[in-house]
From TrEMBL:
<feature type="domain" description="Nuclear receptor">
    <location>
        <begin position="1"/>
        <end position="41"/>
    </location>
</feature>
<keyword id="KW-0805">Transcription regulation</keyword>
<dbReference type="InterPro" id="IPR001628">
    <property type="entry name" value="Znf_hrmn_rcpt"/>
</dbReference>
<keyword id="KW-0238">DNA-binding</keyword>
<keyword id="KW-0804">Transcription</keyword>
<dbReference type="GO" id="GO:0005634">
    <property type="term" value="C:nucleus"/>
</dbReference>
<dbReference type="InterPro" id="IPR013088">
    <property type="entry name" value="Znf_NHR/GATA"/>
</dbReference>
<dbReference type="Pfam" id="PF00104">
    <property type="entry name" value="Hormone_recep"/>
</dbReference>
<keyword id="KW-0675">Receptor</keyword>
<dbReference type="InterPro" id="IPR035500">
    <property type="entry name" value="NHR-like_dom_sf"/>
</dbReference>
<dbReference type="InterPro" id="IPR000536">
    <property type="entry name" value="Nucl_hrmn_rcpt_lig-bd"/>
</dbReference>
<dbReference type="GO" id="GO:0035259">
    <property type="term" value="F:nuclear glucocorticoid receptor binding"/>
</dbReference>
<comment type="subunit">
    <text>Heterodimer; with an rxr molecule. Binds DNA preferentially as a rar/rxr heterodimer.</text>
</comment>
<keyword id="KW-0862">Zinc</keyword>
<dbReference type="GO" id="GO:0000978">
    <property type="term" value="F:RNA polymerase II cis-regulatory region sequence-specific DNA binding"/>
</dbReference>
<dbReference type="GO" id="GO:0048384">
    <property type="term" value="P:retinoic acid receptor signaling pathway"/>
</dbReference>
<dbReference type="InterPro" id="IPR047158">
    <property type="entry name" value="NR_LBD_RAR"/>
</dbReference>
Length: 323
């Protein structure tokens, strides 16, 4: 069998990206010492090998180092994002029964809560082991690239299917119609569908925190100064999530890859979310709140503050201040 690379034969290969380019994955295997004779073309033989591998015992115990990482990520998540059971829910009757293009009262509340959520996501990032060792430019690039992913993941974990509602960090609970009217618009159905897909995974706070960290610390983001360093930081997070999910669900080995697939899903939703923000600008009476605008900007368009002397982005994101 012959594989072909559709890029520059230099693709980043890690646990998340390894299936994107079989050519570069195979080359990496050769580089680390795999024998070329080990490559089999016989599909039946390959299937037999896979079946044999499945029954091999695996150790799903976290090392001391990974256990410490899991605890730190879990704590960072829980201290910046209270779970649904910790919130005192409250509702509003504002445009609860009929869809409108935009309910300005709900939009004002939603934008206020989203701004607070972004601040908490920045705080979460700064608590992740190793994140602040990255260059300031890379920290900003990663945050601006993943902030919407994490924001969507967080709100979707607060979905209550019985009432078809989502709950924000102050306890405000909106139904599907109100979410549409608050600014989600055509994005509403996509977000609620994703929330429904999370339910069978039964993710706890630790898994949500680890998945958020994996979304954030990802070396394939555009314009990173040190993508290899970012990948190096992501590797133990992937290993920790894999072991933790297998240990928590020993009879459900498929849960870890299903969780990783949600990273790709979140990126798709975020792309649609950024498109929605463009149309939303024409619907709201004033400017987009500055922190939301900052995080929605394309990271590639971000000006290097060391050249321009502009520290606005650093101050807005809170990255210029020590944790």
């Amino acid at each position: 069998m012959v594989y072909t690379c559709h890029r520059d034969k230099n693709c980043q290969i890690n646990k998340v990206t390894r299936n994107r380019c079989q050519y570069c994955r195979l080359q990496k295997c050769f580089e680390v010492g795999m024998s070329k004779e080990a490559v089999r073309n016989d599909r039946n033989k390959k299937k037999k090998d896979v079946k044999e591998e499945v029954v091999l015992p695996e150790n799903y115990e976290l090392s001391g180092e990974l256990e410490e990482l899991v605890n730190k990520v879990s704590k960072a998540h829980q201290e910046t994002f209270p779970s649904l059971c910790q919130l005192g829910k409250y509702t509003t009757n504002s445009s609860a029964d009929h869809r409108v293009q935009l309910d300005l009262g709900l939009w004002d509340k939603f934008s206020e809560l989203s701004t607070k959520c972004i601040i908490k996501i920045v705080e979460f990032a700064k608590r992740l082991p190793g994140f602040t060792t990255l260059t300031i430019a890379d920290q900003i690039t990663l945050l601006k690239s993943a902030c919407l992913d994490i924001l969507m993941l967080r709100i979707c974990t607060r979905y209550t299917p019985e009432q078809d509602t989502m709950t924000f960090s102050d306890g405000l609970t909106l139904n599907r119609t109100q979410m549409h009217n608050a600014g989600f618009g055509p994005l509403t159905e996509l977000v609620f569908a994703f929330a429904g897909q999370l339910l069978p995974l039964e993710m706890d706070d630790t898994e949500t925190g680890l998945l958020s960290a994996i979304c954030l610390i990802c070396g394939d983001r555009m314009d990173l100064e040190e993508p290899q360093k970012v990948d190096k930081l992501q590797e133990p997070l992937l290993e920790a999530l894999k072991i933790y999910t297998r240990r928590r669900r020993p009879n459900k080995p498929h849960m870890f890859p299903r969780m990783l697939m949600k990273v790709t899903d979140l990126r798709g939703i975020s792309t649609k979310g950024a498109e929605r923000a463009i149309t939303l600008k024409t619907e709201i009476p004033g400017p987009m709140p500055p922190l939301i605008r900052e995080m929605l900007e394309n990271p590639e368009a971000f000006e290097d503050s060391s050249d321009s002397g502009d520290t606005k982005a650093l101050n807005v994101s809170g990255l210029s201040r020590a944790p």
